[in-house]
Structure formats: structure tokens, C-alpha cells
């Protein structure tokens, strides 16, 4: 018996959006209007690239960014949940699929000593250039019309499961924990025995409930959570069964 836990990061593990939180490093803690208005739907990664150039041009250094990012609060109950998963790693494989970036997630998980809880992190590759600017790239290319062009979480999940099967690992159940519109695509991929865990009051919960109203509900079961302790209660029951 082995369970796979798939986590989104922003507004799921942490209680903020890491990409918008970094603006606290900007002069006067805000972006110029022209930059702020330059975002085009589906092209968030490119937009963040421009934000990182602005921060670099403003003289914001890596250590200041790191200090700011590691102050982001975790979602209610999440520290206990991740501690519980860490204590039961023989039962749970745990991955992150996120539209954030490797640098931010790495900083935050390591500062809180949670990096060992996760087997793999799938997110946009980021690095500091020789001139000290943070650069971010697309995670992959895909053909899914529903997802932002840099990341289809369903494709990531499917490829991970295929790779695990090749290693002889299959899962009793997959639990997908997320909040955003881009989490719907992988949730639609889940089977009857799996479970989607949308965060209460966020886009994913609304989209799942719209599907149910239009009589095309998701195949998997659904558990809405407001605190990560709701998720922990479920997992404790799961491993007792």
C-alpha cells in the first residue's frame, strides 16, 4: 500500500503567491504601472521574467530576495501536515507540481526543513545569472489548450506515474491538493479511487462545483479543506484502513 500526494505550492503549501510576494523587495514595495499592466493571460512566466529584470536593475540582491521569501507564512495546519507526512514516508510518496520556480521553492522548503518530505519538485527552472539577476524558464512544452503555455500539470502527473510504473511502483490512491484554475486539468485525469482536495473558497473548488452542476462531475472523490489539518485527518483515516 502506497499513496501519492501531489501538492500545488502557492496558496496551498504556503498561504501566499510566491511570485507576487517577491514584490516586497521592489523599491517602495511595488512595481511600476507599465510593468504591472504588461501581463498577458497564459504568459505569467514571461511576465515574471520582466519583474526579475526590474528587481535586478533596482539593485535587489539574492540574499535580500531569499530573506524576503523565507518569511512567507505556511497555510494553516500545513507545518503539522508536512511533519506527519515526513514521519510516514514509507506510506506516502509526495511531489510538488507548481507554476512557481525552483529557486523560491527550494529556499522556502529548506528554511523550514521540509525538503526531505518531497520526493520530487516539478516547477519552472530558475537560476541567478553571472550578473546576479534571477532568470526563469518554462518547465516544458505541451499541447494542452486548457493550461498556461509553460506548464500542463496533467502532463507532469501522467509522466511521473508512467516513470514510477516502469520502476514497479503503483499507488493505491492519488490525492491531489491544490487551489488554482491550473489544478483542474490534473484533477480531471484522476480516477474513481483517487481524491481531489481543493482549498475552500479558491478557484479549483469553484471549477469542480461548476462541473458538478453542469452534470459532468470529476471522476474522483472530492474533499474541500480550509486548514491542512482537514487533510491530515483524512490521511490518518486512510492509513488506518
TrEMBL record:
Residues that, per the record, bind substrate = 19, 99
The cofactors required by this protein are:
Mg(2+)
Pfam families registered for this protein in UniProt: Put_Phosphatase
InterPro entries, per this entry? HAD-like_sf, HAD_hydro_PyrdxlP_Pase-like, HAD_sf, Pase_PHOSPHO-typ
Which residues are involved in binding Mg(2+)?
A: 8, 10, 179
This protein's UniProt keywords: Hydrolase, Magnesium, Metal-binding
NCBIfam families, per this entry? Answer: DKMTPPase-SF, HAD-SF-IB
What family does this belong to?
Belongs to the HAD-like hydrolase superfamily. PHOSPHO family.
What this protein is called in its record is: PHOP2 phosphatase
Q: Which organism is it from?
A: Notiomystis cincta
Amino acid at each position: 500500500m502506497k499513496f501519492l500526494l501531489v501538492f500545488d505550492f502557492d496558496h496551498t503549501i504556503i498561504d501566499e503567491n510566491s511570485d507576487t510576494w517577491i514584490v516586497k523587495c521592489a523599491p517602495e514595495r511595488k512595481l511600476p504601472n507599465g510593468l504591472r499592466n504588461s501581463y498577458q493571460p497564459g504568459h505569467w512566466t514571461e511576465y515574471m521574467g520582466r519583474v526579475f529584470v526590474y528587481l535586478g536593475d533596482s539593485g535587489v540582491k539574492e540574499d535580500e530576495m531569499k530573506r524576503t521569501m523565507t518569511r512567507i507564512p505556511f497555510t494553516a495546519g500545513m507545518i503539522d501536515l508536512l511533519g506527519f507526512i515526513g514521519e510516514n514516508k514509507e506510506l506516502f510518496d509526495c511531489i510538488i507540481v507548481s507554476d512557481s520556480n525552483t529557486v523560491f521553492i527550494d529556499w522556502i522548503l529548506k528554511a523550514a526543513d521540509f525538503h526531505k518530505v518531497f520526493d520530487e519538485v516539478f516547477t519552472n527552472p530558475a537560476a541567478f545569472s553571472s550578473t546576479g539577476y534571477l532568470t526563469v524558464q518554462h518547465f516544458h512544452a505541451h499541447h494542452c489548450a486548457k493550461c498556461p503555455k509553460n506548464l500542463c500539470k496533467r502532463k507532469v502527473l501522467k509522466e511521473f506515474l508512467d516513470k514510477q510504473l516502469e520502476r514497479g511502483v503503483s499507488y493505491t490512491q492519488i490525492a491531489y491538493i491544490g487551489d488554482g484554475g491550473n489544478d483542474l486539468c490534473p484533477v480531471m485525469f484522476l480516477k474513481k479511487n483517487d481524491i481531489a482536495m481543493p482549498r475552500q473558497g479558491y478557484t479549483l473548488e469553484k471549477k469542480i462545483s461548476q462541473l458538478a452542476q453542469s452534470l459532468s462531475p470529476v471522476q474522483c472523490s472530492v474533499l474541500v479543506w480550509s486548514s491542512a489539518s482537514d487533510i491530515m485527518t483524512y490521511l490518518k483515516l486512510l492509513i488506518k484502513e
